[in-house]
Amino acid sequence: MAISNGLTGEEFARRAFDFLIIGGGTAGLTVAARLSEIPDLLVGVIEAGSLCQDNDIVNCPGLAGRGLDTDLDWKFETTPQVGLGGRRMPWARGKVLGGSSALNYMTWNRAARQDYDDWKDLGNSGWGWDDLLPFFKKSETFHKPSAAVQNATRVSLHDGDVGDDGPVQVSYPKQFSASHSLWHQTLNAAGIESNDRHLSGNNTGCWTSVVSVDLRTCTRSYAAAAYYQPISSRPNLVVLTEAEVREIVLTRERSAHSPTWKAEGVRYSYRGVDFTAYASREVILSAGSIQSPQVLELSGIGNKDILSAAGIQVKIDNANVGENLQDHLTTTLVFEVDPCLQTPDDLNTESIMAAALEEYHTSRTGPLSMVPVSMAYVPVSRFMRAEELEVITQRLATSNVTDEYDRPDRLEAQRRRFTARATELGHVEYVFDLGNWGVACPVDSTGTNKKYASLLQILQYPFSVGSVHIQAPGDLGSPPSLAIDPQYFAGSHRGLDLEVAVRAHRFAERLCSTEPLASLIKEQVWPIPGTTDTDDDLREWLRSVLTTDWHPVGTCGMGGRGGPRGGVVDDRLRVYGVRGLRVVDASIMPLQISAHLQATVYAIAEKAAVMILEDWDIRR
Q1: Distance CA 177, CA 512 (A)
Q2: What is the pLDDT of residues 558-598, one digit of tens each?
Q3: Which position among 184, 198, 551, 596 bears the catalytic label?
């Protein structure tokens, strides 16, 4: 359903906006909601997707993931990955009001204190843990678990660490999968302690995860439901959906020092017709780590060689646009488990799904009320022997500045994560839940009595660093296409990610042979037993099955001390060389973090809204 506050695309363009926001996703709607708290400001949002209401695929926790590869998804795809044997990989991004917060698996966590302090240490003032913590809290309302939940599993009340009056509703589920009761005991037996304050800046250990689910309704709490729908009647907030941005309108300014550019507005297409809307104060780009650099390049901001090849007039030459792409790398072990267990695979039949939906809508209970919450973040020192870690540290110690890390201080931050902080940070995330989560796993439980469980291993600090760029059109007159190249297991440090993945996989095997979790498991089915007995075989298997955890960052990173030579935006998120243009989304993160992204993106947007009002000297 398209919405535009009753306006057509042409009428939207006629409004005299103070601020125009490109992208009605996680960050964009957060900024829009906060700026529109000032009645005198007129705020416009342009979103390519539509409003999705009363849709179980979005709202129902247990159907997380069902929105992927649907009309709610941009359905991006990477370029052929050399490090993965030439495979292309699907990359999901939300094409819906609320963005990817409408499609994700609702995990709500924060990275280590040091991850954010690393941003500040690069010269980005105001971006450390202590600076961001108030904005984490501002975005959320934490619902304390009931006595029944506290008795059922090990949870935390997070006293002093969480917010109690923010738009996003976060909680523990009311029900847990049958395997979760064994999670803490198993990890503890394997030497990984439980962490009762994983939202406090130390994320190592195992825990029961908080999720972005409204405990009152047992529905997904995401940007559209949390930040937009409660205030959608504000007359000074205008959202135009099903409109695709073509470019940011830039005009040349003359100054006493040098010519500069100013963002004046946005050209967009609505129902096949192009329009231009204008903003008297700022254009705010919140299209995400894939499309924010794309929009900048289409507007003439980027590497001059890439722009020229695509037929785009070069306005600001900044080779950092679209570079520094970092993602979390994921592989999965799959096991056959006790056939008496209820798993998500059971919902594959029409009758069982109908019964589960009936239970969910009637009582907000059952399998569709549950999401994965068995989490652990494990330091690299816990699963790599000293001599194996030494190989990595020696290679890092002798590394020069490379294409991936064109700044010595950025490379040094990554080095410290695997040397001085090898025992402190959560280098690999482990997630266990019932059901077959293996993307390439060939097993099928349909028509059988077989049940499955999965253990995901997700590398948090990748050495694989890639790019997102427009490409020259293939046909005369066609728009430039988009090349997403994360460079998995490639580049100067291609061997390092692979070696960490090998050792992380071996530790996962150990976890699944540890009691009491081992008592659930009948046999391993993926990888096929016998095919990964040697490390060389395992490396080949990892190349064939590695996938994304959909956490891309960095493509419009903050430049810190390097300024425009080291990034795309300054620490106020203003695009270098352009007046009246900011980027506010995950693309501004200069270094990857050890966490799912959504809580951090909300905090970034909350902080950005405050900075925007400060810079314009607008007081509430």
Answers
A1: 17
A2: 999 999 999 999 999 999 999 999 999 999 999 999 999 99
A3: 551
